[in-house]
Amino acid sequence: YTDTTVLFARYRMAPVMVLWLALCLTGTWAVEKSNFKTCDQSAFCKRQRALIPGESPYRALLETMELTNTRLTLQLINDKNKVRLLLELYRLQGNMTRVKINELKPLKPRFEVPDVLVKEPTTEPMSLLSQDENGVVLSLGVESQRVILSARPFRLDIMEGREVLMSLNSRGLLAFEHLRIRKDTALGSFCLSFKLLVTPFIPLLPKQTAKEDGKDEEGMWEETFKTFVDSKPNGPTAISLDFSLPGVEHVYGIPEHADTARLKTTENGDPYRLHNMDVYKYELYSPMALYGSVPLIVAHNTERTTGIFWLNAAETWVDISSNTAGKTVFGKMLDYVQGSNEKPQTDVRWISESGIIDAFILLGPTPKDLFAQYASLTGTQSFPPIFSLGYHQCRWNYNDQEDVQAVDAGFDQHDIPYDYIWLDIEHTDGKRYFSWDPHKFSSPKEMLQGLKDKKRKLVAIVDPHVKIESSFKLHDEIQSRDLYVKNKDGGNYEGWCWPGSTGYPDFANPEMRELWAQMFAYDKYEGSMDNLHIWNDMNEPSVFNGPEITMIKDAKHGEWEHRDVHNLYGFYVQMATAEGLIQRSGGVERPFVLARSFFAGSQRYGAVWTGDNIAEWEHLKISLPMCLSLISNLLSSDVGGFFNAPGTELLVRWYQAGSFMPFFRSHAHMDTPRREPWLHGLDNTNLIRDIVRQRYTFLPFWYQQFYHSHKTGEPIMRMLWLHYPKETATFAIDDEFLIGKDLLVHPVTEEGVTSVTAYLPGKDEVWYDIHTFKKHNGGQNLYIPVTISSIPVFQRGGSIIPKKLRVRRSSTCMEHDPYTLYVALGNQNTAEGEIYIDDGYTFNYEKKEFIHRKISMANNIISSINLAHDAHFTTQSWIERVVIIGATKPSKVTLKAESKLDFEFDASVSLLTIRKPGVNAGEDWTITLK
Description:
The structure is a single chain. Helix content is 19%, strand content 27%. The protein is α+β, with helices and mostly antiparallel strands. Among the domains are: 48-177 and 235-323 and 340-363, glycosyl hydrolase (family 31) (Immunoglobulin-like); 463-607, Glycosidases (TIM Barrel); 815-929, Immunoglobulin-like (Sandwich). The strands form nine sheets. The chain has an eleven-stranded mixed sheet. A hairpin with a 2-residue loop joins strand 11 and strand 12. The N and C termini lie far apart (65 Å).
């Protein structure tokens, strides 16, 4: 994605490719929106959006109801066309409810998403409380929770006591386009003319076509966008359902969009779109689809946090409306003064092109509960190797082995630590992945060994499109085993991507995923070593000459169309790659895999990032809500911006923000000036060095956060309301964030500012500036002067954060170094924290080979106690110092009430530093202040 002349010269693409790129990429200062559909240009979205609220044709046939201990089923009928649906209702363990709706007797099976759920959810008993001709009431068994099923029109209300938590089809926008035979085909005409004759052969066809939905609308059986024709052999298959959230004004989620974390009403524009696509230089503050899709919405008010997980992998649009949208603050105050009893409400409507309705209702009630519920369904964040939490240096592309060695040496020369250097597509032999350019990277093992000797690593890109060339072993293998995606006529689907003419492996096929995983074996990926990790780019999938730069929807994955599985493609690519790295180590080592496209459950397989951003201040600013909205925890944006050249101030500010994101990578386009950290003048080199080195001091804290997230499913990078759920001032804040619960970060995202205002939550909390140790009360907006040398970061009073202050060339070099504990006292002069230690890169922690300890301070005693008595691990690391923030000066400090310890006290900032306790970090110990 560069100046077209340069691009054409580099890739020498065929004339048709040159023409396409000239049309699509000329003037790429911003995304070409005309390449991507609006709702009006998407036939099914336009059809569904035209439905009128309050005119639902569906009613429940109560006489068909069957209730077992764990499952309710009944039929719904559309009174306009007499098509019947099957409703299934489940109460799930962990305060969740599942609602499935499918055709009662479809002409052929409809797609149901596999592999995303970690297991079939455990059900719990439901009981019938009452029933009459208007509906039924079921007990959900949790306190006073129950489901009210109304028959005419069909509606579900989930209640707790007298409060409605959520309603389904309350606006009457349930829609289910049933599979049917096209009227203008020979079979269709025959069936319509001779219904009695075909009744034995096509179940329910007479009833389903007796009162058909009227004439076929444009786009139901074939749809054209630009020059691309979607044949739609199954006809219209869209589904839709609305959810109402009484009492809710704030909803979040459904990444990925370049927009605020709090979702906006879509009533006067397009819905939010979930359709994984290669949208380089994307537009900001837009509901346009981007690289990934997670169909999860989180709703929050001061009383409860709830969620809706819509398990559907087809193109999906999400409409959001609110009865308070557009009201000014004065209007809301007037309502209050006048005693208006209108309750805030947000309505969410999901519209998907195909599949079935499979909705999980997560009932919280707390934010922690909700994330545990979602994790129980789709899994927790994979536990990354600790070195992946260090600094990553990337560029499209480092030229050759000598360039890699020179950049590596530059970090040592300028005393800047890093863990990974990255290679983009130019390192391959003619864009044949799993290969090396024989001239520029002729000795990859020598290069990798040089990095390994310094305890550093390399990431190489392996994209999920395969050069069609008979001499390419991977292509020959996939073709011989018939594992490519097919076109609608049964031949192998071909598109254009970086190699030119390209085949797309069918990753929805387990056999293809197994073959892909095997390609990472050392004897197959020649030149690879154990310090080579992987980057999956372009996995939306990106198809340069496809509609919306992706795959045509009528392509085939076995029996399913691509429209059914589209948003799963990138998920499957990352799954297969992660499995390959695990297999190559014999199941011993944790993988590191970065992917651009993702779906619900992708967090189980590695890291994601926000894609091809631009070196502009607004892109730095939007990176915060984008990351806060992502469900994956190992995430970031490209530091510095991928396109264009950042000014030095922007670059430094992006490094500062990126250093406090879970995944910390600088990346740049091939046509931007080189931007290694030492290329922007001595002053900026010093600033960036300090930023990167500070990141390394926090690695024990980061690693502990990832262990916690891996076990619980809680996000690492968090909006403030997750810990302050009743504090309404936090609900819309997305320009600052928490790391875990103990660090608050407010990056500087505007040019030339000399101050920012940060909100410190918690009226009963105190916060300490980590640079000055100054104490501030919570529950206030704090004016903070800033310079280019730092951004506001605060440690929560009552917390203990472990750090390592001896920064070395990489994280692995710091493995056995000692810890410094930063104890920030709360208002009660108490504090708590943890230390987690294992070998940093294997799965041995699953065998209980780790140290997990609680560090606490109360009554002037600091102690370390074991949290995992059945675990076993030894460490060489020891406690080098304890820094107590907000302390008073003691007369004496002793270890285990015996050994006297040296200490220093700075009265100007109430800072007590206890030096060299000398105790092993994995043992019990106590320090007493007198």
